[in-house]
Write a structure and sequence with these properties.
This protein has 280 residues and is mainly β. It has two helices and 17 strands. Strands 9-16-10-13-14-15-17 form a seven-stranded antiparallel β-sheet, with no helix packed on it. It has a four-stranded antiparallel β-sheet with strand order 7-6-5-8, with no helix packed on it.
């Protein structure tokens, strides 16, 4: 996939770009694999806003993705590559030999007509095939990786992402995650060979506020533009820095920006060999 740019005929077009959907082979989703999404607008069951800056947006139907792929040793043929409004990657519509259909997260290079297999045994490590980590040769990229056996893929699912399988020792496999974190995962966990499709998604620029609203994102106001009663960063004359003792704060007074939020008592911390690198 590539990114398409237009002539700067308007201020909104000048800095905007869109996805090139040339890899899409089917426009309408499979009716048996979609369910409606009820909009929450960032509110909980009592109507209180618990996640800010959400609301509106275009109406969507949720595509039911098979993250587990537990129909083992059955060939699934890719019959279409589709767009999914709920994720950055493309999704592949596959059909098993018995006629059942399912959605998979599509891998880079996956095309209509490809044959995919999921197995608990050693099979060919071709793009799109799924097997336990200890059956995959070291040095390959994998995606849709399980954290616990039979729970379904939870890691490396975003557009263009993949984890590098470094080595398998003892009961665990060592993976280098897209964030740079190196961690251990039980070697019996399943993973799919390859990288997630649509790597150019990160290059798309919205260009105007309206496209952000279509995605369900409401405006975000800087804390330093507010009054002191509304935010710890507020107040002051003209352009002032945050200037708080103890560093930047959230709207509720907790430390923010660069503060580690991971629970030190989390059991899985012993499986993390090195933490992810801080973004510059």
């Amino acid at each position: 996939m590539a990114v398409k740019k237009y002539k700067p005929t308007t201020p909104g077009r000048r800095n905007a770009s869109v996805q090139d959907f040339s890899d899409i082979t089917k426009t309408k989703p499979e009716k048996s694999l979609i369910v409606p999404i009820k909009k929450q607008a960032g509110r909980n069951n009592t109507g209180k806003i618990t996640v800010r800056h959400r609301g509106g947006g275009a109406k969507r139907m949720y595509r039911i993705i098979d993250f587990k792929r537990q129909k083992y040793d059955q060939v699934a043929e890719v019959i279409a590559i589709e767009y999914d409004p709920n994720r950055g990657s493309r999704i592949a519509l596959v059909q098993y030999e018995d006629g059942e259909k399912a959605y998979y997260i599509a891998a880079q290079g996956m095309e209509v007509g490809n044959k995919l297999v999921s197995s608990q045994n050693q099979i060919e490590a071709s793009v799109g095939n799924r097997m336990p980590l200890d059956k995959i040769p070291a040095g390959l990229f994998v995606y849709n990786v399980e954290l616990q056996p039979s729970k379904g893929g939870q890691m490396a699912r975003g557009a263009g992402s993949a984890a590098l399988l470094q080595v398998v020792e003892g009961k665990h496999a060592q993976l280098k995650m897209p964030s740079g974190e190196v961690r251990l995962v039980p070697k019996v966990c399943m993973a799919t060979v390859g990288k997630v499709s649509n790597p150019d998604k990160k290059l798309v620029r919205l260009g105007k506020a309206g496209r952000s609203r279509h995605l369900g994102k409401r405006p975000t106001v800087r804390g330093k533009a507010m009054n002191p009663v509304d935010h710890p960063h507020g107040g002051g004359e003209a352009r002032n820095s945050i200037g708080l003792k103890g560093g930047p704060k959230t709207p509720w007074g907790k430390k923010a920006l660069g503060v580690k939020t991971r629970n030190k008592k989390k059991v899985s911390s012993k499986l993390i060999i090195s933490r992810r690198k801080k973004r510059k």
